Amino acid sequence: MTDKFRPLKDAFGRFATGIGVAACRNQDGSFSAITINSFTSVSLDPALVLWCIENRASAYPSFMSGDSYSISFLRADQQALSERFARYQPRPLLAEEVEIWTTGAPVLKDRLAAFDCKISARHKAGDHVILVGEVIRFDSAKGAPLIYFASNYHTGAKE
Ligand SMILES: Cc1cc2nc3c(=O)[nH]c(=O)nc-3n(C[C@H](O)[C@H](O)[C@H](O)COP(=O)(O)O)c2cc1C
User: Fold this and answer.
1) Greatest CA separation found in the chain?
2) CATH number of 6-148
3) For the segment 101-138, what is each residue's pLDDT rounded down to a tens digit?
4) Given the CA of residue 83, which atom of ligand 1 is nearest to it?
5) 17 and 37 in contact (C-beta within 8 Å)?
6) Nearest residue (CA) to ligand 1, atom 7
């Protein structure tokens, strides 16, 4: 079957991005996580970021009901994590894979940078919802990023 959105996806995909894992804590204490490349830094003062979640994603209800999320940027050698959280109902994050900072959202222990965010706004936008987050805590490290371009993974240059 042909994908009628293929030409638009091909054009959108010509914008090279890093890759992040967005994660949140559910009411029962479990974690939900999803691979994303829609991250955008928005504002310095206050520190705001955003990313977009598709309204059909299995993790959608989790990110719509909680009040916080984390985003961990992946390193060049973490493609397996990207693939894991781009699957339907992925194997959940385990406590030993994450750190809990301020909001309760899980941050990947191994990462290039991370942001612990309180959700400050949700905006419906077509088949996605834009999740704006106020950055409560963050860090960054040196290293090479995992890059996504034209539906393929690439390795970014090391700093
Ligand atoms: C590199 C990459 C970037 C992605 N970026 C996003 C994104 O920004 N927002 C989103 O909702 N889904 C994004 N996805 C898709 C989700 O990761 C994927 O659809 C979802 O985790 C699969 O679960 P589902 O079958 O329940 O939808 C991306 C996938 C990949 C491989």
Assistant:
1) 47
2) 2.30.110.10
3) 999 999 999 999 999 999 999 999 999 999 999 999 99
4) 31
5) yes
6) 36
